[in-house]
Design goal:
It contains 15 helices and no strands. By secondary structure, it is an all-alpha fold.
Length: 411
C-alpha cells in the first residue's frame, strides 16, 4: 500500500513541483482532527441558519406576524448583545462548563418560548423569552474559528477560514429551506426540535473531546478587551460597513424585482448571489498565491465594489441582465468574510481570539440591521436602481477604513 502513494516530482531548483488543484485543502486535511473540527463547524452553522425562520414560523403559528417579526428581532438582539460576553467566557474559562451552562439555559429558554406560544402567552412574554433564546445560544460556531487559529499555520489558516465561509454560505442556503419544509409540511415545532437536536450533538462533539477545546487564558486585561486595539476597531468598522452593503443587496434586489414586475426572479437573484459567494470562498481556499495580508481586504472590497457597480448598471438594462450579473457580484462575499475573520484573529490580543470573533459577529448584526433599514427606505423612496448605485459607494468606504489595517504575521 505504501508504494501506491505519489511522491512529489522534484524541479530543477530542488523544490517540489507545484501541487495539484486541491493541494491547499489536502494540506488542511492533514491537520489532526480535521474531519471532527469540520463537522462541528458545519453543524453549528446549520443550527444557526435555521433559527430565525424557525422562530418566525413558530410564533406566527399562534400569534400575529408582527409579534413573530418582533420575536425574531429580539432573539437576534439578544444574541448580538451578549456574543462578546460569551466569547470572553470561552477565552478565560474552561470550555466544557461554559458550553454546558449555555446549553442548559438555551434549552430552558427554548422550551419556555414554545410553551408560552402554545398556551397563547402575550407578546411581551414571547419576545422576552425569544431574546433569552438568542442570548444563551452556545457560541460553538464562533469558538471553532478560534480553534482553527490555534491548530493551523499561516498558510492553512487562510484555507480554513475560506472553508468556514463556504460552510456558512452553504448553511444559509440549506438551513432556511430545511426549516421551512419541516414547519410547513409537518409542524412548526419540528424545526425547533431539529435545531435543539443539532445543538446538543454539536456541543457534545466539543465537550467529549478535549482537543477541540481552547486553553483558557489567565491574563486579566482591560475591561474593553480587544476593543483597546485601534487596528481592530478599524477592522470592526469595515466589517459593519461591508455587511451593511451585503444586506443592502439582499433587501434592494427583491424590491427591484417587484418594481419591474419580475417578482418571480427574487429567489433566483438571492440564490445566485449565495451560490457565487460559496464558489468564490471555496476557490479562495484553493489559491496558492494571495495578496499580502495587509492588502487582501482592500483589494477584495475593491473587486466587490466593481461587481456591485456592474449590478447597478445591469439594473438599468433589464431584469435578466441583473440575474446574469448576480453570481459575479457575489463571488467575493464569502472570501471577504473569510479574510475579515483571518485578519481579526491575527489582530486579536493573546487569549482573546474568541471574544474578537464574537465582536465581528456582533458587528455583522449591527451592519445587517442598518443595511436593511436604510436601503429598504431608499429603494422605496428613490427607486431600487438608485439604491443599488449607492452600494458600491458604501463598499469603497469600507475599503478606505480597512486600508491601514495591518495584521501581525503568523508562523
Amino acid at each position: 500500500m505504501s508504494r501506491a502513494r505519489t511522491t512529489p516530482v522534484a524541479t530543477g531548483s530542488g523544490h517540489p513541483a507545484p501541487n495539484r488543484f486541491f493541494a491547499e485543502y489536502r494540506t488542511l486535511m492533514r491537520v489532526p482532527g480535521f474531519w471532527r473540527l469540520a463537522t462541528i463547524g458545519m453543524t453549528s452553522k446549520l443550527a444557526a441558519s435555521m433559527t430565525s425562520l424557525s422562530m418566525l414560523l413558530l410564533v406566527s403559528s399562534a400569534c400575529s406576524y408582527g409579534t413573530a417579526g418582533l420575536a425574531v428581532s429580539c432573539s437576534t438582539l439578544g444574541q448580538g448583545l451578549t456574543a462578546p460576553l460569551r466569547g470572553r467566557l470561552i477565552d478565560h474559562y474552561p470550555v466544557r462548563p461554559v458550553l454546558l451552562s449555555c446549553l442548559a439555559a438555551h434549552l430552558t429558554a427554548t422550551t419556555a418560548v414554545i410553551l408560552t406560544v402554545r398556551s397563547g402567552g402575550n407578546a411581551t412574554a414571547v419576545c422576552s423569552l425569544a431574546a433569552a433564546v438568542g442570548a444563551t445560544a452556545p457560541p460553538v460556531a464562533v469558538m471553532m474559528r478560534s480553534v482553527w487559529h490555534s491548530v493551523t499555520t499561516s498558510t492553512t489558516l487562510n484555507t480554513a477560514m475560506a472553508l468556514d465561509a463556504s460552510m456558512m454560505g452553504a448553511a444559509l442556503i440549506v438551513g432556511p429551506v430545511l426549516a421551512g419544509w419541516l414547519s410547513l409540511s409537518f409542524s412548526p415545532l419540528l424545526p425547533c426540535a431539529a435545531i435543539t437536536a443539532v445543538t446538543v450533538v454539536t456541543v457534545a462533539l466539543v465537550v467529549v473531546n478535549s482537543s477541540a477545546a481552547l486553553v483558557p487564558s489567565a491574563a486579566a486585561g482591560h475591561w474593553l478587551g480587544p476593543l483597546m486595539s485601534s487596528p481592530l476597531r478599524r477592522l470592526l468598522a469595515a466589517d459593519a460597513i461591508f455587511v451593511m452593503a451585503v444586506t443592502a443587496m439582499d433587501v434592494v434586489l427583491p424590491v427591484y424585482a417587484r418594481q419591474v414586475q419580475a417578482a418571480e426572479l427574487t429567489g433566483l437573484y438571492l440564490g445566485s448571489l449565495a451560490v457565487g459567494s460559496v464558489v468564490g470562498s471555496f476557490t479562495l481556499g484553493m489559491a496558492t498565491k494571495r495578496p499580502p495580508r495587509g492588502l487582501a481586504l482592500p483589494v477584495l472590497l475593491g473587486l466587490f465594489a466593481l461587481g456591485c457597480a456592474a449590478l447597478a448598471v445591469a439594473a438599468r438594462l433589464s431584469p435578466m441582465a441583473v440575474l446574469t450579473v448576480c453570481p459575479v457580484a457575489g463571488l467575493v462575499i464569502g472570501s471577504l468574510f473569510a479574510v475579515l475573520r483571518t485578519t481579526g484573529g491575527d489582530l486579536a490580543p493573546p487569549g482573546q481570539v474568541t471574544e474578537t470573533m464574537s465582536w465581528l459577529s456582533t458587528l455583522d448584526m449591527v451592519g445587517g440591521a442598518a443595511g436593511a433599514a436604510v436601503f429598504a427606505h431608499l429603494a422605496d423612496a428613490k427607486g431600487s436602481p438608485t439604491a443599488l448605485v449607492l452600494v458600491p459607494v458604501l463598499i469603497m468606504m469600507a475599503a478606505v477604513v480597512s486600508w491601514r489595517v495591518r495584521p501581525r504575521q503568523r508562523r
